Amino acid sequence: MTLLSFDWPLLLEKFVLIAIIVFTTLGIALYTTFGERKVAAILQDRPGPNRAGPFGILQPLADGVKMFTKEEIIPTHANKWLFILGPGLAMVAALMTCAVIPWGGTVHIFNRDVVLQVTDINIGILYIFAVVSMGIYGIMIGGWASNNKFSLISSLRAASQAISYELAMGLSLIALIFVTGNLSLGEMVKQQQTHWWNIVYQPLGFLIFFICAMAECNRTPFDLPEAENELNFGYHQEYSSMKLGFYLFAEYINMIMSSAVMASLYFGGYDIPFVDDNLLYNSSGIWHTLAPFCQVGTLLLKIVFFIFVFMWIRWTIPRFRYDQLMNLGWKTLIPLALINMVITGSLIILKINHWHF
């Protein structure tokens, strides 16, 4: 393939799409911090941030300026390069997940049909698992490079927690793959447009996946790596300025991406409920133009709902003890996921045999 024969418009299209998704995700993550503080304030019957701008809406920008302008401190005995690499790796891994998420249908612009998905690889779920697994290295590297015993213990906790809950998450997805027959998120969403959403077929699998997603995001009640009453500030104990901001941002971006993945796998993704999306695309006039944007808005609403549930649980349920965390993962979720997988496989075999006869 020569440079002249390369599809440069497609490459430009993907770069623009990546830029839009990344900057939109960063903006949502920025204001998710504000939303979390407001939700916590409502649940605790207090006003929350209300000084920076009308109703406090400029508070996230003020926090961002503070992060950028704070003094940069690197501990004397820390491994400098790994200390810098840790938060960067955590941030990059969090953003890479968005590459396989289908954000909407097709937009016709500049005489081109632009698919609102960076890439629809046929192993999309495996890609997500690989990227999520890489993100834990950012925490491990940061905790070890800090040369702080509390940071190291915290990073070890995070690694063991990720290993424990990724097993149950993977087993719950195997049952879903039995139902859908493929690993592509784009194909799964298209299947749900013409059938029931997967939550109907896999309610137990979704519950297991949701609990494991909270554990992967280190959200309460699974925030043992950041248990302030035991480990001070956790794996980012020694971090300041924007390096600390990267770790905090990565956690919120992981929460957004987990919500997008759950919506795509179990709740139809960008599928508009009670509406035939094909009719919108085949209609004439403004609805044909607005159809893909309505789909994007639908997915964003589902993501916002899941983010609210994450926040609601954080400010309602207390943190587990570490032994309770491990027991839940190994003695409850993994057996439940195995049982769900066996039941799903058995029902599919019975259905196939019924068709055969």
Give an account of the 3D structure.
With 357 residues, this protein is mainly alpha-helical. The chain has one domain (8-356). Helix content is 69%, strand content 2%. The protein is built from 13 helices and two strands. It has helices at 8-43, 59-69, 80-96, 124-145, 149-180, 185-194, 198-201, 203-216, 228-231, 241-266, 277-282, 286-314, 322-356, and strands at residues 106-109, 112-115. The protein has a two-stranded antiparallel sheet with strand order 1-2. Strand 1 (106-109) and strand 2 form a beta hairpin. The longest helix has 36 residues, at 8-43. It is globular. The mean pLDDT is 85.
In terms of topology, how is this protein built?
Blueprint: H1 8-43, H2 59-69, H3 80-96, E1 106-109, E2 112-115, H4 124-145, H5 149-180, H6 185-194, H7 198-201, H8 203-216, H9 228-231, H10 241-266, H11 277-282, H12 286-314, H13 322-356
Antiparallel strand pairs: 1-2
Helix pairs in contact: 1-2, 1-10, 1-12, 2-10, 3-4, 3-10, 4-5, 5-8, 5-13, 8-10, 8-13, 10-12
